[in-house]
Amino acid sequence: MSTYAMCVRYDGVEVDDSYCDALTRPEPVHEFCAGRECQPRWETSSWSECSRTCGEGYQFRIVRCWKMLSPGFDSSVYSDLCEAAEAVRPEERKTCRNPACGPQWEMSEWSECPAKCGERSVVTRDIRCSEDEKLCDPSTRPVGEKNCTGPPCDRQWTVSDWGPCSGSCGQGRTIRHVYCKTSDGRVVPESQCQMETKPLAIHPCGDKNCPAHWLAQDWERCNTTCGRGVKRRLVLCMELANGKPQTRSGPECGLARKPPEESTCFERPCFKWYTSPWSECTKTCGVGVRMRDVKCYQGTDIVRGCDPLVKPVGRQACDLQPCPTEPPDDSCQDQPGTNCALAIRVNLCGHWYYSKACCRSCRTPTPRPGPAAP
């Protein structure tokens, strides 16, 4: 509220200021006053960059409920207050369309490194064009293979105690667990240990002396992670002599009766994630975002069967060198119903509420009065 002085006669009629003594004129007074309770309102941030650099994407913004709790004290409050006041919540997401995406290269994830410890090998990935192969620029084709190094040579086999014998001589089996471990005791995939030196996990048992017979170890993992592949196992001719297992030549067990060492196997259908190259950062300085398309393919068809737990990220922050100055906010507008002219006259732009409520007015420099004319 504001008070100001005017010159009046004894009968209360306003007259010209020259009839009153200018030296005794009271200064204008501007004070905050509490009117009726202010209704909560929705406020929004500016829209984010489009989530895709080509084609159809999304823009996002933050929507919060605000309320003036007391004169000069504006605060974010629970959304329930705006909803109870039946204020229409602004949209938090909208579609944005950039020029259509042209043909672009898409890549699968890198394969596992097949190298043994201390050795080098090559990992590969599949490269495909999002449209006909001839339409993608061959000069920008991503590399499909790169060198890789095997795990450290501190992996070694460890075994558990033998379990009980499952039957009589020739039929009995005793089993133990075999693990591949690092020097600090972590269990890692068996492929990181030397398969040639893997201890047997199944031994014959029964009587002290048992004739030679075929003994099959457990099947190894299928040699593919999807689709049809091959699995193998070790089959040995073994006997017990004075309670100790001994390996014999195949003819002593009868080669015709040898169990198969190889079999076909089928893992889940071959769904595979593919990603497009990363877009440019949405900012040229500071912290921005870069995006890429993430698609699931089965053969040439886009499907939904890929494992969501290993889905590649489609969006990540890009932290560039600091911006020299913050760019002005072009969406900055004065809030309706706020007396911004008064706020500027009484120097309230430094107050955090009025700097926000009178954003545009406070940003515009106020012209200073020039020197008085002589």
Automatic annotation (TrEMBL):
<dbReference type="InterPro" id="IPR010909">
    <property type="entry name" value="PLAC"/>
</dbReference>
<dbReference type="GO" id="GO:0006508">
    <property type="term" value="P:proteolysis"/>
</dbReference>
<dbReference type="InterPro" id="IPR036383">
    <property type="entry name" value="TSP1_rpt_sf"/>
</dbReference>
<dbReference type="GO" id="GO:0004222">
    <property type="term" value="F:metalloendopeptidase activity"/>
</dbReference>
<dbReference type="GO" id="GO:0031012">
    <property type="term" value="C:extracellular matrix"/>
</dbReference>
<keyword id="KW-0677">Repeat</keyword>
<dbReference type="InterPro" id="IPR050439">
    <property type="entry name" value="ADAMTS_ADAMTS-like"/>
</dbReference>
<dbReference type="Pfam" id="PF08686">
    <property type="entry name" value="PLAC"/>
</dbReference>
<protein>
    <recommendedName>
        <fullName>PLAC domain-containing protein</fullName>
    </recommendedName>
</protein>
<dbReference type="Pfam" id="PF19030">
    <property type="entry name" value="TSP1_ADAMTS"/>
</dbReference>
<keyword id="KW-0964">Secreted</keyword>
<keyword id="KW-0732">Signal</keyword>
<feature type="domain" description="PLAC">
    <location>
        <begin position="328"/>
        <end position="366"/>
    </location>
</feature>
<dbReference type="InterPro" id="IPR000884">
    <property type="entry name" value="TSP1_rpt"/>
</dbReference>
<dbReference type="GO" id="GO:0005576">
    <property type="term" value="C:extracellular region"/>
</dbReference>
<dbReference type="GO" id="GO:0030198">
    <property type="term" value="P:extracellular matrix organization"/>
</dbReference>
